[in-house]
Design the sequence.
């Protein structure tokens, strides 16, 4: 199912760029460039949140890079993030935030992100996330 989602997503992108047979590269998920892109995506997505808690990058699942006509490249990153204990309004950098322990983890976000890198500058072009309830969703406590 995931593969289909990505294929559709890439298909849409390919259409938007009107690129014919541009080579898709699969860089190493652990490379510094990929990590930099994933962290830029993490920061961007956190900046878009208006309520709740910040998310920290947990794992990069898949990366593709596609050359752009302007000499830059686009990154298509599939990554997952975990909810931290830092509120979105907390100025603490997310790198310093504690990820909620498994039992408390309310939300894990599975995201597909497209970034462009032109002249060394990364920008998020598009993203979509699927939030999944954690293993033990928080239940509201009834106090008598
Ligand atoms: C975040 O962590 C870094 C590295 O551990 C530390 O130098 C910095 O002071 C911390 N920032 C805050 C706001 O706690």
Sequence:
């Amino acid at each position: 199912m995931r593969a289909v989602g990505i294929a559709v997503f890439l298909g849409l992108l390919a259409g938007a760029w009107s690129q014919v047979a541009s080579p898709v590269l699969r860089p190493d998920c652990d490379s510094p460039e990929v990590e930099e892109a994933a962290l830029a995506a993490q920061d961007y997505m956190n900046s878009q949140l208006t309520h709740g808690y910040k998310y920290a990058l947990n794992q990069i699942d898949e990366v593709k890079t596609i050359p752009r006509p302007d000499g830059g490249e686009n990154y298509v990153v599939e990554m997952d993030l975990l909810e931290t204990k830092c509120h979105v309004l907390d100025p603490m950098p997310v790198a310093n935030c504690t990820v909620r322990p498994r039992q408390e983890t309310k939300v894990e976000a599975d995201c597909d992100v497209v970034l462009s890198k032109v002249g060394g500058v990364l920008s998020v072009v598009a993203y979509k996330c699927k939030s999944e309830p954690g293993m033990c969703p928080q239940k509201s406590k009834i106090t008598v």
